[in-house]
Amino acid sequence: xxxxxxxxxxxxxxxxxxxxxxxxxxxxxxxxxxxxxxxxxxxxxxxxxxxxxxxxxxxxxxxxxxxxxxxxxxxxxxxxxxxxxxxxxxxxxxxxxxxxxxxxxxxxxxxxxxxxxxxxxxxxxxxxxxxxxxxxxxxxxxxxxxxxxxxxxxxxxxxxxxxxxxxxxxxxxxxxxxxxxxxxxxxxxxxxxxxxxxxxxxxxxxxxxxxxxxxxxxxxxxxxxxxxxxxxxxxxxxxxxxxxxxxxxxxxxxxxxxxxxxxxxxxxxxxxxxxxxxxxxxxxxxxxxxxxxxxxxxxxxxxxxxxxxxxxxxxxxxxxxxxxxxxxxxxxxxxxxxxxxxxxxxxxxxxxxxxxxxxxxx
Length: 362
Hints:
The chain is of the alpha/beta class and about 350 residues long. Among the domains are: about 5-155 and about 325-360, ATPase, nucleotide binding domain (Nucleotidyltransferase, domain 5); about 195-260, Nucleotidyltransferase, domain 5 (2-Layer Sandwich). It has helices spanning about 40-45, 55-60, 80, 85-105, 125-135, 150-155, 195-210, 215-225, 255-260, 265-275, 285, 300-310, 325-340, 340-350, 355-360; strands at about 5-15, 15-20, 25-30, 35, 50, 65, 115-120, 145-150, 160-170, 175-180, 190, 240-245, 245-250, 290-295, 320. The longest helix is centred in the N-terminal third of the chain and has 20 residues, at about 85-105.
């Protein structure tokens, strides 16, 4: 009997971006979106039936795109719960499967060997949400596990003891204390707020303040990612936007600070609830080891503002992860490689061991 070498994959399946890391040394990141040509003309121009990543943004006028994990759509299994027609829900499910398959293909695992993976999801993801992710992974992985995103970050950075991880993604903010073991659901907090909400708030404020300016959701996100802040700035944030077809400069400092600031109070309130549950003998240690991850961790001044807000509880130290893009995926990969072989064997037996054939056929 010939045993094929196992390929391990760690995936951070984000609302806006999906990062993936592989045991073969490869890693990549892609927008969590799938695009289909609008008609046969667009199909002929694009030369393909489905597109991914930056190509969706470049060709957005010619495609219909879906972000399958935006606004919690795939938390639901029925069209009534999701609040959309059944055809749209099915298209989201199809997009999720295509996205997972494409993300794994970017790291080029061998087609004839087993692929085992760990996928990071929001801390308090519902059973239905986890089922949706597992369904999306079917046909791509031979065996797969679901893990909370903050835990994969902590595992990858060897911060499993007396650490609080705050993972700020596009769709949710996840807060999870690390106590040396796999966190229970009761220990974790998920706030249904994130970078998407900041973008929407920023865009609404800009359109109200400058109705003559033309600005897209993509441009608003780019400004936030480049200049986002929550502390007081001496300099102004001035950007150039088209107005009646001509470029014009706009001061967006106030609107940007307001939008980014919407994250602060919910994080602080949730942190206080988490801290209140700590054993008093360990509270100071957790306060001294707070880790910020996710795209929202890059908002300037957020770490210092959180430290100031937590001062009544004692000296706090908030640190940003070394690599917010891949921290979750790398941690998921390390978790996959550290999982005992017998556990993977059990998972593969449950799945029927048929996904390798499906991957090869695909």
